[in-house]
Amino acid sequence: MSGDKAEIKVGNALPLKKIPAATFVHNVEILPGKGGTLGRSAGTFIQIQGGAKGYIQLKMPSGEVRLVREECYATIGSLSNAENKNKKLGKAGRKRKMGFRPTVRGVAMSGGTHPHGDGQGKSGRHGTGGPAKDKWGNTVGTRTRKNKRTNKFIVHRRPNKKGRKSKKYKTII
């Protein structure tokens, strides 16, 4: 059941302003009426952390904390099949049937195809031993987020793999 007057029960869809804090939800809309776009993968859930000034603060599965308008709908509860991410594919053929193409190392390519290519044996990067580059010559490991328009909705970026502090943005609240 969905709507403003639906009871707070697993499987019901309600506007975020009607759902209490610390509740797990999934299938959350980013824009009202657009349809759910966040938290739709197997076993995922998003935690509501509270709200103010027409926005609700959500903690994403990645650890990112972001703001969403309180009129947006969300479905209460977490999705099933949480062990889906632990599934072993077993062989390359199953990965190919899922639409994945083989990953070829840059070192194994020719020099014209990749900056790491060319040379005899394990030559790797050439020249001054500068920073690692991707296929197009851009430095690897730099942040690539360009969408500054939505930075105001991100309270806290997801944690970095290398243990460095994640970036905090100025928010609208």
From TrEMBL:
Residues 118-130 have a biased composition (Gly residues). InterPro entries: Rib_uL2_dom2, Ribosomal_uL2, Ribosomal_uL2_bac/org-type, Ribosomal_uL2_C, Ribosomal_uL2_dom3, Translation_prot_SH3-like_sf. One of its GO terms (molecular function) is transferase activity. It comes from the Bacteria. Residues 143-152 have a biased composition (Basic residues). One of its GO terms (cellular component) is large ribosomal subunit. Keywords: Ribonucleoprotein, Ribosomal protein. Residues 8-139 form the Large ribosomal subunit protein uL2 C-terminal domain. GO terms for biological process: cytoplasmic translation. Residues 108-152 are annotated as: Disordered. Belongs to the universal ribosomal protein uL2 family. This is 50S ribosomal protein L2. It comes from candidate division WS6 bacterium OLB21. The gene is rplB.
